[in-house]
């Protein structure tokens, strides 16, 4: 089973921007991308990262899809509060939240990224998070060549 990833991505982006009343930019030069992945799990994975980008920033979220070598990189970028360096290796842990006191107006259980990691592992998707406090966070998901067919 495979699905057209750009269509699915645009549907998620549209839905989340309406739900959260936020602008989400989507950029790609790829015409069409067939992905041999679990579609439901892919939607869940992307939704978790976009939800976080929205939740922890108040500026536009930017999503981009690019080819790198034969793989595809899906990037989710926010210009929000960022993650402290010492927390970066913990954010995928079950129930971990940077702000334990929950003084933030944003609620959450700290399960989102734990689930995301599980889904990524199941689908052989790579996750790389770069973040700078008060500057923002960039998540790069690598979808490997054996799971995709790229049409330019
Ligand atoms: P939920 O389980 O409801 O998603 P959550 O957002 O607290 O709640 P995770 O998605 O697992 O849980 O994220 C874990 C922690 O990582 C968050 O509490 C937050 O501190 C930090 N975090 C995740 N994404 C971002 C981001 N884009 N910018 C800043 N901090 C982030």
UniProtKB/TrEMBL annotation:
<protein>
    <recommendedName>
        <fullName>histidine kinase</fullName>
    </recommendedName>
</protein>
<feature type="domain" description="Histidine kinase">
    <location>
        <begin position="1"/>
        <end position="147"/>
    </location>
</feature>
